[in-house]
């Protein structure tokens, strides 16, 4: 009887479409969704698909995403492969509670912890010769490896296996010796660049957003989508120190949009995705272990994507339109918040889907400007960081994902990541704010993500293919210097630029 009622109400919801039985829906899920979103919907390459993680997305928008894909993600469109009824039944499935409530506590973390090498087994001197400040880590998503690259000779020094689907920038300790990786399925790996060894690992969550390393090198903070929490790890051996549930007022909990280190404030700063709040978590204790108690800053809107000024006194962020499909977005564009008062300083006029996380700053006519690519339209917004006015919108040949420059370089580079011109990279003159050259490193193949050498003289571009490459350009003449075969090199990270919080690179 209950089954019949279910079918009647589902048929009413579907407006008379053929209803796919639940077992079929499970089979469709296994065939088309499980590879990226996990067999149990707990997330893998794609996010977890559970009601608690979909609270900001109305079911009708989920149907649209399944049918038409999702901008700025790897989510393809299924309208050609699945019928409307199948798509609607999949949407129903992902809003249903799983059989078992997913949980991942300190005991699970500890059980997963692996120490590959003890400190006593490792040398305090690098086992190879190179300028340690000018090394790059290149994350190769194609076969889940990373390469340590010499930034002077552009010769690979070492290639090693990472966990599946590393996402976001690996984070260095200030001295550049250790680097920490986060995978989408929660694994945190600590790699010793002197010894070229992965030294310890732990699974800190089920579905992880990113990690940050404290400026003093003592703590790692992991932001999770599932469970809804922030996890503090001891940076030396990755032992869990504290789990901070991301709970707002009442019982409402939230995914973490991202967590970053604010070096000048000795704190971590995290934005929540389902509760309009930014949290600042100090990591310095007068004595003993810090309590990692969050200071909660309440906002007018969610921050999905955010960025700081160079002194970390202000945070600017945006809500993503689709995530706010539930009607959450109150402010159009973006917000600027003073980190000390917690008050809104300004609103930003930013059409489309700016990618502030990829924003960079530079000096322009005596003032600091912020430039951000746009994930949904072909433009770069250049904003005066004093008046918060958009001083120029630079038209590009398609939506871009990543933007980069270097203090010592006259140019800012932005990729075209989506659409017919996804093989192009624009080079913008930071003085005239005009595109001076458009490069096409591998016609027909997506090119994106740029990173500079320590001195800003060379720019490295990725060819995003399984049989891809890193292409090295002279950053002044814009001529190609070298091409290194790599397997879908998603991002590259220069030790000096990252540890010095270089203005032209993401933090
Ligand atoms: Fe990323 C960084 C969020 C999709 C490749 N991406 C980040 C960061 C965030 C983020 C919050 C900063 C973390 C850090 O470095 O500590 N990314 C998101 C999304 O919300 C989005 C749009 C949807 C999602 O799937 O989560 C998304 N990202 C992608 C991709 O589809 C990319 C292209 C391929 C992939 O790896 O899944 C991708 N994201 C990257 C890369 C960085 C990144 C290479 C690091 C950039 C850097 O230079 O610092």
Describe the fold and architecture.
The protein contains six helices and 33 strands. With 507 residues, it is mainly beta. Among the domains are: 23-94, Cytochrome c-like domain (Cytochrome Bc1 Complex, Chain D, domain 2); 105-298, C-terminal (heme d1) domain of cytochrome cd1-nitrite reductase (Methanol Dehydrogenase, Chain A, 8 Propeller). The strands form eight sheets. Strands 1-8-7-6-5 form a five-stranded antiparallel β-sheet. A hairpin with a 4-residue loop joins strand 13 (256-262) and strand 14. The longest helix is centred in the first third of the chain and has 16 residues, at 22-37. The radius of gyration is 23 Å and the shape is globular. It starts with a helix and ends in an 8-residue tail after the last helix. The relative contact order is 0.10. It binds heme D (DHE).
Q: Can you summarize this structure?
A:
By secondary structure, the chain is mostly beta strands.
List key phrases describing it:
507 residues; mainly beta; Cytochrome Bc1 Complex, Chain D, domain 2; Methanol Dehydrogenase, Chain A; 12% helix; binds heme D
